[in-house]
């Protein structure tokens, strides 16, 4: 496939179909109708996104297996984890809130991490997996429901308030969760969905491998 072959792209805001222009490194394509950004050419964007995503996945596991915080109230010590938070809400009769916390802080982020790795790892190895389109759709669909950053904000507020009634110690899981949020945000900043399909085209028989710094379509 020639790098100068024109393709059609749909605007994520107004759904207008338009030809995708060739871009220089760092440049962005915008919708001719509404001006929304269609995509941005970032050299090695998928490789950088994969590196940050792998690190984020390790931290996500750590955040779920280590305690978020430890409370010491007059000699009575207790610890909690992400899953333990959902369990505690369930035990106090707040089943809907417990289910919401479980879904938005554990299940959805786990699905999102898995979908991203299922796309990026095979492509990095030069393989176009059969589940690529499904993983792409799943990651896009669950992205708005991953709310670990909201949970982190609530945990920090609770941490400040709890210091008035007990001694609070930050757990390893809390630090891992904070680092995960930052690395996840960095990975999504580097991630360019358009490059997924550009890489797929390059891996097809007869496709032209992408050249670093080359204008792409």
Could you describe the 3D structure shown?
With about 220 residues, the protein is α+β, with helices and mostly antiparallel strands. It has two domains: about 1-40, no CATH class; about 45-205, no CATH class. It contains seven helices and seven strands. It has helices spanning about 45-65, 80-90, 95-125, 130-140, 150-160, 170-190, 195-205; strands spanning about 10, 15-20, 30, 35-40, 70-75, 75-80, 165-170. A three-stranded antiparallel sheet has the order 6-5-7. Strands 1-2 form a two-stranded antiparallel sheet. A hairpin with a 2-residue loop joins β5 and β6 (about 75-80). α1 (about 45-65) packs antiparallel against α3, α2 packs antiparallel against α3 and α3 (about 95-125) packs antiparallel against α4 (about 130-140). The termini are close together.
């Amino acid at each position: 496939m020639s790098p100068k072959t024109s393709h059609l792209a749909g605007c994520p805001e107004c759904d207008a179909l338009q030809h995708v222009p060739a871009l220089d490194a760092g440049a962005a394509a915008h919708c001719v109708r509404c001006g929304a950004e269609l995509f941005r050419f970032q050299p090695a964007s998928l490789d950088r996104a994969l590196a940050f995503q792998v690190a984020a996945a390790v931290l996500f596991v750590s955040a779920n297996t280590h305690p978020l915080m430890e409370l010491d109230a007059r000699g009575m010590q207790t610890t909690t984890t992400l899953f333990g938070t959902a369990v505690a809400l369930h035990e106090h009769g707040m089943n809907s809130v417990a289910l919401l916390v479980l879904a938005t802080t554990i299940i959805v982020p786990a699905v999102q991490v898995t979908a991203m790795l299922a796309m990026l790892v095979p492509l990095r190895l030069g393989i176009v997996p059969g589940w690529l389109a499904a993983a792409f759709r799943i990651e896009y669909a669950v992205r708005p429901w991953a709310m670990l950053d909201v949970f982190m904000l609530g945990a920090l507020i609770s941490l400040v308030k709890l210091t008035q009634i007990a001694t609070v110690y930050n757990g390893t899981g809390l630090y891992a969760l904070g680092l995960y949020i930052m690395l996840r945000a960095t990975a999504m900043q580097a991630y360019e969905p358009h490059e997924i399909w550009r890489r797929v085209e390059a891996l097809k028989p007869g496709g032209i491998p992408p050249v670093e710094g080359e204008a792409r379509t």
